[in-house]
Amino acid sequence: MRINADGARGCAAVIFAAVKIRDLYTPQPQTVFRDEPLADAARTLCHRHIGALVVLERGDPLRRPIGILTDRDIVRGEFRRGTDLFLLTVGDVMTPDPLVLRTDLGLTEAIDALNARCVRRAPVIDASGAVLGIITLDDLLPALARELMTLASLMGTQASREGRH
Question: Given strand 95-96, what is the order of strands in its sheet?
Answer without folding.
Answer: 31-33, 52-56, 65-70, 95-96
